[in-house]
Amino acid sequence: MSKHSTDEVWSVTINEMKQQHPRIHRISADRFYALATGKEDAFWELVEALPVDIRDFLETNKMDLVKETGNDNSAYQEICQAAQKDGHDVISQIYQIAFPEYMGFKK
Q1: Is 80 exposed, middle or buried (0-12, 13-18, 19+ CB in 10 A)?
Q2: Which backbone phi and psi does 25 adopt, to 5 degrees?
Q3: Residue 102 has what DSSP assignment?
Q4: pLDDT, tens digit (0-9, with 9 covering 90-100), for 22-49
Q5: pLDDT band at 53, cuts 50/70/90?
Q6: In a 3-state reduction of DSSP, which class is residue 43?
Q7: What is the Cα–Cα distance from 19 to 53, expressed in whole angstroms?
Q8: pTM over 0.85, yes/no
Q9: CB count in 10 Å sphere of residue 34
Q10: Dihedrals φ, ψ of 88, to 5°?
């Protein structure tokens, strides 16, 4: 998945000849969802709903992310610390790291 918001004509060079078609694009998730739904921030809306659903799933299934990932998981601990510093929950912090330039994520 692209880390940058993009929608560009896909092209490839084969035997030194550039090949492309105007209907074939390399497109990021935010741009794809915007195109599919007509809503510029549709991907953000989906991602915004996921933490609630994930928390519900974990609570329903009596799971604890710390127990599941292990206490010695330094990446998880770093994300937790950054989330606390930035005022996000852990899942929202992961989204901010993964999609910093996507439409709707700079709120």
Answers
A1: middle
A2: -125, 155
A3: S
A4: 999 999 999 999 999 999 999 989 888 8
A5: confident
A6: helix
A7: 42
A8: no
A9: 21
A10: -110, 160
Q: Rounded to an integer, what distance in angstroms lies between the CA atom of residue 72 and that of residue 10?
A: 42
> Which amino acid, one-letter code, is at 41?
D
Q: Sign (positive/negative) of CA torsion 8, 14, 15, 17?
A: negative
Q: What residue type is assigned to position 101 of the chain?
A: E
Residue 85 CA, chain-centre distance (Å), reads 20
45: Cβ–Cβ under 8 A, 6 or more apart, which residues? Answer: 39, 104
Burial letters for 49-58: b for 16+ Cβ neighbours within 10 Å, e otherwise?
eebeeeeeee
How far is residue 10's CA from residue 5's CA, in Å, rounded to a whole number?
15
Q: How far is CA 11 from CA 8, 16, 32, 74, 88, in A?
A: 9, 12, 18, 40, 38
